[in-house]
Amino acid sequence: MKVRVLGCSGGIGGRSQRTTALLVDHDVLIDAGTGVGDLEFEELLRIDHVFVTHAHLDHIAMIPLLVDTVGDARSMPIVVHGSPETLRILRSHIFNWLVWPDFSSIPDRSNPFLRFQEMRVGESARIGGGREVTMLPALHTVPAVAYQLSVDGRSLVFSGDTAYSDALIAAINKIPDLRHLIVETAFPDEQQDLALASRHLCPSLLALFLEKVKAKPDVWITHLKPSRAQTTLQEITDNCGQFKPKALYNGLEIEL
Fold it and tell me: Rounded CA gap, 95 and 114, in Å?
């Protein structure tokens, strides 16, 4: 399994700043932020599944355009996986014929371009090739989840957007084969109040989070706010140096 970073920024502004999207092999997206727009048409055509952590725009922005672009060129619908709450938000506020057409009923409900598939925390989806995606708990201002990607006895966890979460830490600590942990840290410590209010992590909270993680995976930092990225990374090094976290970047490929 190969995980390619299409976007990992907490904002936009130039080619290096694309919002959250991970491409798993050639056919699965974990979130679908603006980074998906850099894929060529033939690459978009191969995407069969999108696993959504939560319904905030920086994580779902390209789902409507993806389905609109390739829907009539595919023989099967694109399947969007998410929690019941997240899928309800997408149906009610995006695919509602006002913001965007309801592609789950186009060209008709028996043969749609888009299909929604509910998942619940703890449930897994098998996506072929021995690959499995498991939904984990997370804590954000809207219903949110994390995901565990597994293949051949190796796992990666992507936190999505989350505050400090004992439930997520407990779920991570049940994974014996964890190789990589991608975890968000949006704000520097001087903006800890903002991090707490918006249910994101800052370096000191990340340190508390990582101290509870029993495994020693490679730790990757995502969702840095562009205006404070260097400050935040330096504080992460100062607070979490024993884990040697590294910043995620567009184009990075993580092999499992």
Answer: 10
- Counted domains in the chain: 1
Q: Which domain holds residue 86?
A: 2-255
Q: Is 53 exposed, middle or buried (0-12, 13-18, 19+ CB in 10 A)?
A: buried
Give mean pLDDT in consecutive 10-residue pieces for the chain, a chain of 256 residues: 97 93 98 97 98 98 98 97 98 98 95 98 96 98 98 97 98 97 97 96 97 95 95 94 91 96
User: Which residues are CB-neighbours of 178 under 8 A, at least 6 positions away?
Assistant: 155, 156, 157, 172, 215, 217
Asked whether the whole model's pTM tops 0.90, one would answer yes
Give Cβ neighbours of residue 153 (< 8 Å, ≥ 6 apart). 177
Pair of tokens at residue 56: 């905030």
Pull the structure tokens for residue 120: 């619940």
> Token match 């399947």: residue?
79
Q: Output the domain CATH number for residue 216.
A: 3.60.15.10
Q: Give the CA angle between residues 158, 134, 2 to the nearest 5°.
A: 55
